[in-house]
Give the backbone structure.
Amino acid sequence: MLARRLSSLKVGVKGTWLEDCLATLHEELEERGIRLRPHAWISSEWFSPANSPGIAIPFYLTHPRLMKVEKKMMLEVEGGTWSECMAILRHEAGHTVQHAYQLQRRRRWQQLFGPSSKRYPRYYRPNPASRQYVQHLRLWYAQSHPDEDFAETFAVWLRPRSNWRTRYAGWPALKKLEYVDELMGEIAGKRPLLTTRERVEPLNELSQTLGEHYRKKQAFYAFTPPKTYDRDLSRLFSADPRHHRAQAASGFIRRHRAYIRQLVARWTGENQLTLDAVLDDMISRCRELDLRAVGSERKLVMDFTVLLTAKTMHALFGPSRRKWIAL
């Protein structure tokens, strides 16, 4: 599969579960009186171009086999469940609404979200405690750029039964939600200014192979973990010769790595591929130190999960943290 070119996959939205997702998105927009119906096409990743009010959907979501390849290469499938797919579609719909109605030109929009013309950063470093922004997609994505701030706010506003007035009561972000509510009422029933159905970077025009695609994607999340685990691992596991017959700590981590990796990724927002590199390094250190997993396995799993979470958050927000990657 990795030798095949993306253009040769011959997959599309029609006839897949994505059709139902898009139909649901269109129904949600219709219920709010928004006339725009974003078109969709298959590409290499999720995005919505500024010159066309449509949504590009990654190819791997079109077929179970491709989802398995994505899972194997990236350890997770972004948008691979109904709820995750709808969350991303609502976010991308926010971009299409902004572009279709040129909302970024409005003074109040600029006052609340900032200038849309601001250059997109390669990296951003969010503040998880900030209440200036809504929380929708992971990695506190609203903090990366004014356009993303609006798209995230729109997604929270659009989601049925989101109860955003109660959820964000007392937050400065509530002003943004109230503005979106007011703004959508203003454009309700109006024809979009931008109506082109252009498809940007469609799959049939992408000549790279799946192998090339994934090498580039994996490099995007590449991370060299710091060698600072010995003291913490020695506190959690035992180096006492009396326990030499106990289970090796390296084997313990390998056995539970998938569960722990998924759990930590869920609560920290870190990519599983990055966490896997950290786990590889921890396994190596446990082997070098000849550490043993002694005691209650359930408690060890819990304690190790806490350790990995703490190390991850320190890496994310510590003084020597590599900068956040803007997705």
Q: What stands out?
A: The chain has two domains: 6-211, 221-317. The longest helix spans residues 297-317.
